[in-house]
Amino acid sequence: MGLAIRIIPCLDIDGGRVVKGVRFVDIRDAGDPVEVAQRYDEQGADEITFLDITASSDDRDTMVSVVEAVASTVFIPLTVGGGVRSNDDVRRMLNAGADKVAINTAAIVNPGFVKVAADHFGEQCIVVAIDAKQVEYGDCPRWEVYTHGGRNATGIDALEWATKMDEYGAGEILLTSMDRDGTRDGFDLTLTRTISDAVNVPVIASGGVGGLDDLVAGVVDGHADAVLAASIFHFGEFTVAQAKECMMQHHIDVRL
Amino acid sequence: MKTIAIIDYGMGNLRSVHKAIEHVAPSVKVHVTSDADDIRQADSIVFPGQGAIRSCFAAVDARGLREVLLEATKTKPFLGICLGLQSLYEYSEEGRGVPGLSVFAGRVRQFSHNGSDANGRALKVPHMGWNQVHQVRAHPLWNGVDQGARFYFVHSYYVESTNEREVAGFTDYGVRFTSVAAHANIFALQCHPEKSQKVGLRVLENFVHWDGSG
C-alpha cells in the first residue's frame, strides 16, 4: 500500500451553479455547488475541482463566494480553474479556501506567469491545465494544445508544453483530451501515458469518462496519478464510492 | 474560554485551518494572529506553513516571532503542520540549505526524482495525495484515528529524524520518512489535517482538547 490514486469529481460552474455541458453545448443544471460538493465529500471524493466555465469578470466574485462556502464545510483539497490570469487571481482563490488553482490560457499567453506564481505561492498550489487535441495519428501520434474549450489551436506540441510547464514549476498537470471530452468514450490513454511518463509531477487524466472501467484504464494503461470525471457522478449514475470499489477490484490503491 | 492562536506570518492561506478548528470546536476562540502577545496568551498554538522554508523563516523573523515561537514549543500544546513540522528540525536541504529551529533532531531532505515504488513505477514529486500514516506509539492525538489511516500530503521535502523517540508516525514514499513527530507538548504533522476529511478533523479535535502531556 502506498499513495492512493485520487478520484476527483469536477464541477463546472456557471453563474454560481453546477452545470455540465456535453461538448460545450446542451448545458444542464446539476445543482448547488455546496450541496454537490458535500455529497461528493460524503461519498469519499479525494479532492474536488471547480471550473469556472464562463470565466467572465462578473462571475469571478461569484466563484470566490462559491469557494468560500464550500471550504467552510468540506475539508478536502479544492482546486479552482477558469480565468486565472494574475497573481491577484491566485491569491483571491487561495484566500477563499482553494488549495490549488488551475492555470490554462494565461500560461499560453505568458508562460512566465507559471514561474512567478509557483515561486510566490509554492509549486504545490499551481496546476497547469492542458487541453490537448490529437493532430497526428499512426506510430508517432502528436497532440496540440488548444484553448477556449477546444476552439483555438495554439500550434504548441502538448508533450513539449507539459515538459516545459513541469520545468517552470507546475506542481501538477490537469490533462484533458478535447477529442474525448463529453463523449463518454473513455480517456485518451495514449495521450495520458505519453504525458504522465514524460513529466515528474502528478498528472490528472480528464475528458471522456463514460463508466467506471474508464477510470481504471486511466490508471493502469494511462499511468495517471489521479482521475477526474464529471457527468458520471453528477446525475447519480455512479457514486465515488462505487468508483473506488471498482478500482480496488483491479488492485488499485484507493482511500476508503 | 479556551483560546487557540494560529500563527499568521503572512505566507498564505490559513482559512482552511481556521475553519476546520472552528468546525470541530465551536466553543473555542480561534485567533489568526501575528501578534506576539496574542500568541503568548493563547492556551494552544497552531503553527501552519506552506511555500519555501527560507521565506517562512524570513517572514517569521520580519514579524519578530522566532522567540515567542520557540517559547511556545516549550510551554503549551503546539501543533505544527507541513512546514510547521519541517521548520522544527536542525537543517533543511531546501534552497541551498537553511538552518532550522533545532527543536527536533534530524534534517529535511528532498525527495529524489528517480524514486520508484514496489511495482517499479516512477514516484512523482511533489508527493501529492492521500497516503498512510503508521503510528509508532500511543498519543492522545491518535485517539479515534485508525492505525494506517490515510491523510492528505503535498510536499517535495521530507523529514529524516535522528532521534527515534521523537517519531510518532511514519509514511512510505520511496523512502520511509517521519510524517508525524511528537515530544512533550509538541505534535507536528507533515500532512494536512485540515484537508484530511474526518480523520484529520479528529486529530484537530483531539488537539483542541489536549493538555500538552505526551
The total of beta strands of chain B comes to 14
Over the alpha carbons, how many angstroms does the gyration radius of chain B reach?
A: 16 Å
Structural class of chain B: alpha/beta
Low-confidence parts of chain B: none
Rg of chain A is 17 Å
Runs of chain A in which pLDDT lies below 50 for 5 or more consecutive residues are: none
Report the portion of residues of chain A in β strands.
25-35%
Taking all residues together, what is the mean pLDDT of chain A? 92
The total beta strand count of chain A reads 12
- Run of helices and strands of chain B: EHEHEHHEHEEEEEEEEEEH
Strand order of the biggest β-sheet of chain B? 2-1-3-4-14-13-12-9
Biggest pleated-sheet summary of chain B? 8 strands, mixed
Residue share in helices of chain B? 10-25%
Topology readout:
The complex is a heterodimer of chains A (256) and B (214).
Chain A: E1 6-14, E2 17-22, E3 25-31, H1 33-43, E4 48-52, H2 57-71, E5 78-81, H3 87-96, E6 100-103, H4 105-109, H5 112-121, E7 126-136, E8 142-147, E9 152-157, H6 158-168, E10 172-177, H7 189-198, E11 203-206, H8 212-220, E12 226-229, H9 231-234, H10 240-249
Parallel strand pairs in A: 1-4, 1-12, 4-5, 5-6, 6-7, 7-10, 10-11, 11-12
Antiparallel strand pairs in A: 1-2, 2-3, 7-8, 8-9
Helix pairs in contact in A: 8-10
Chain B: E1 3-7, H1 15-24, E2 29-33, H2 36-41, E3 44-47, H3 53-62, H4 66-75, E4 78-81, H5 83-86, E5 91-92, E6 98-99, E7 106-110, E8 127-132, E9 134-135, E10 150-155, E11 157-161, E12 167-173, E13 175-183, E14 186-189, H6 197-208
Parallel strand pairs in B: 1-2, 1-3, 3-4, 4-14, 5-7
Antiparallel strand pairs in B: 5-6, 7-11, 8-10, 9-12, 12-13, 13-14
Helix pairs in contact in B: 1-6
